[in-house]
Amino acid sequence: MPAAAAAQMIKDECLVDGNPTLNLASFVTTWMEPEAHELLSLAQNKNLADQEQYPASNEIQERCINMLASLYNAPSNGHGVDAMKEKEIAEAVGEDPAVAAAAAELQSESRAVGTSTIGSSEAIMLGGLAMKWRWRQWRAKRQAQKEQDQRQSGEVSGSDNTKSDVSGTLKGEGWATSAVMANRSYGPGSGEPPCNMIFSAACHVSLLKTCKYLDIEPRIIPLAPGQYTLDPDLVMEAVDENTIGVMVILGTTLTGAFDPIEEINDRVTAYNEQHGTDISLHVDAASGGFVAPFSHPDLKWDFRLERVKSISTSGHKFGLVYPGVGWIVWREKKDLPEDLVFHVNYLGNDEKTFTLNFSKPAAHVLLQYFVFQRLGREGFTSIVTRCLANARYLAEQLSRTGVVEIMSENLQPGGRTVPLCVWRLKPDKQLRRLLGFDERDLVHELRTRGWIVPAYSLPAALDDVIAIRIVVRESLSHETCDLLLHDIKTKLVDLMNKAAESARNARKLMRATLKQQARGATGGKELLIEGAMAAAEQEDDAGDSDADRADDEARAALAVQILGAVQPSRPHARFHGVSSVIQPTHHGKTMTRVSGALHAGLRAVGLEHDKHADDKVEDAAAAAPLAGGKPELSAEGSSASAAAPADTKEGHRHKYSALLHNMLHAVHGRASSVHTGTAHSEATGKSKHITSTIC
Ligand SMILES: Cc1ncc(COP(=O)(O)O)c(C=O)c1O
User: Fold this and answer.
1) CB distance 284 to ligand 1 below 6 Å
2) Which end of the chain is more exposed for a tag (fewer CB within 10 A), N or C?
């Protein structure tokens, strides 16, 4: 196949992929500056694993690691600090080469080490692996101590066949791995007990994978209503001497919240002191690693805490790089057991490798360095601040609809969260009945407008809760938030109307079936059905029941509240889409009903039915795009007349009718009609004929 044809075929097929900018499900970066694209194409054929061939790319990786170590307050962090210390040491030790070498060795020991990875998942697995190895080192040390104590006291070693050798690099041992294993304190026949790792049920799947792949028992701490992070009390209940560590999360996947890392650090430290254990913390900072240092610089979650031995983060999330890069940094060199560092020489020099895979693109590391250089702390701080403000804006606006409960911690400034807005429909049973749909229906409908927003159930214990998550990335501007809000609100009302309509149709169908059955029934059944049929006929005669009418009015009021929940600074948007209010009330007798419900709704959004409110109504009507000035409506049929006195009940109703007419026209521009009217614009001097679906 010619290259052009093959490429075209793939391009065509990818047309059905979603639009990445509208993909609000993903944390992953979907936009970078044009210069980043240049770097991408410059480096796309470079393999970072080839350290000998691509020394510059590897040096840039080292710089990124040092910058991250510095950002995360590693005890010895970054080139600048090390260079200064090295100078001090050199001056202090004078010319003595042996002392200088020892000092340099000491210095390099205390340096943070790390690597780039393919995302946080790989980094988390490396963090878990190192944790498990450190636990083995601790066990071996403890066992050696025990044996020594026994020898000193003349006791013979017991049945525990744990050996003390965990140094275990493959040096000089060739490939006879099984022979090496047989000598170790772990592996088959070693007597090593199962180890465990603790984390919350709000974890990402990569933590579960880590446990499965590395044969670690996951001790998963359940969530509780309103408690979506790791509970320190439950952590301490789960901990024992075979706990390799606690994986704490800075910005959970489910709600974006930060685990209480400092408290867990302190309690684990106290436990270690009491029990002689060496339990440590790994921070899964997939999202928070590029948020918290800028939004909460004083929050202690990183290497400032003594038990935090490693931190992983996703460069391709709030690190603002295209998909394909993550990072892990260990507090000090000794926290990455030497046993996990492999040496290879088949690409030229002796090269160290401690990642799960070998080859990987150099380009994304260069992009990360580009972003660091381009933005600096100041640039990151400004972007993170804006994203958090947009997330808060979404949360505030959604909660004003009255039907939404915000689950992320972003209704208050300074909330401990990454830029997410996580929410659900309020659990109130009566509200849910009136709405008649759930979160999954809503996100499905939003997909028809191009928005990709996930709805997912929370983990066990809260699995009846369905959450909707909007990730507020750099590319989601305030204006796009407004578009999204508009679509969410409109869909909320449309779905409610559709649900009410289909419930009404279902009831009609049931009545019709009942009648049919009654007509055809024989052999005593007719007696049974007769009563029901009479009732059905009565209902048909009466049309909707009082309960139906009450529900319709409640829905209309809800709709006004939902649609009106827009910032007062945006009056043009205040009633956008209000025509939906009246869709469920279409039985030819609804104008007064709608008007009544509209009163309630208008009260809910602050347009009370008083003299002051009349002005606001006038303003709102004038703001409707059609009006162009103060609208005057003369309606044919049963409805409004502009001449109706303003202060009478009749006058108010006419105003609301005029408002509805204007807005209907503004929103739909067309509608079939029983109701008609003419709007006159003083500004343009033109009159327009309006038709609507009110009755
Ligand atoms: C808390 C957390 N950890 C780990 C991951 C996995 O990250 P990645 O996709 O970079 O492998 C995610 C992804 O969303 C996450 O939210």
Assistant:
1) yes
2) N
Query: Mutate which of 253, 291, 320, 420 to test ligand 1's pocket (most atoms within 8 Å of Cβ)?
Result: 253
Res 685: pLDDT: 62
Evaluate: CB of 27 within 6 angstroms of ligand 1: yes
As annotated, the residues of the chain forming the CATH 3.90.1150.160 domain(s) are 380-478
pLDDT digits (tens, 9 = 90+) for 273-322: 999 999 999 999 999 999 999 999 999 999 999 999 999 999 999 999 99
Q: At what angle do helices 546-564 and 478-520 cross, to 10 degrees?
A: 170
User: Distance between CA atoms of 579 and 490, rounded to whole angstroms?
Assistant: 10
Give the helix/strand (H/E) hosting 616: helix 611-623
pLDDT at 163: 45
Euclidean distance between CA atoms 657 and 633, whole angstroms:
9
DSSP 257: B
Task: Identify which of 54, 62, 60 has the alpha carbon closest to the alpha carbon of residue 366.
Answer: 60
Q: 């702390």: which residue's tokens?
A: 377
Task: Judge whether 229 and 207 are in contact, CB under 8 Å.
Answer: no
Average pLDDT over residues 628-656: 42
313 lines ligand 1 (CB under 6 A): no
Strands (DSSP E) along 623-674, which ranges? 631-636
Beta bridge partners, 330, equal 113, 310
HSE at residue 360, side-chain half, CA atoms within 13 A, is 22
Comparing CA positions, the residue from 244, 336, 327 lying closest to residue 281 is: 244
User: Separation of 317 CA from ligand 1 center, angstroms?
Assistant: 9
3-class DSSP state for residue 47? Answer: strand
Other residues' Cβ atoms within 10 Å of the Cβ of residue 666: 19
Q: How far is 452 from 471, CA to CA, in rounded Å?
A: 10
Question: How far apart (Å, rounded) are the C-alpha atoms in residues 186 and 177?
Answer: 13
Among the atoms of ligand 1, which is closest to the Cα of residue 122? 11
Determine the pLDDT at residue 572. Answer: 34
Q: How far is CA 285 from CA 15, 240, 296, 336, in A?
A: 33, 25, 14, 18
How many C-beta atoms lie closer than 10 Å to residue 88's C-beta?
Answer: 12
Burial class (CB in 10 A: 0-12, 13-18, 19+), 456: middle
C-beta separation of 268 from 302 below 8 A: no
120 lines ligand 1 (CB under 6 A): yes
Domain covering 380-478 in this structure, CATH number? 3.90.1150.160
Tokens 């214990």 belong to which residue?
A: 461
Instruction: Determine the distance separating the centroid of ligand 1 and the alpha carbon of 182, expressed in angstroms.
Output: 36
Q: Which of 117, 199, 204, 322 to mutate to test the pocket of ligand 1 (most atoms within 8 A of CB)?
A: 204
- Minimal-distance CA residue to ligand 1 atom 7: 120
User: If you take atom 14 of ligand 1, which residue's CA is the nearest one?
Assistant: 253
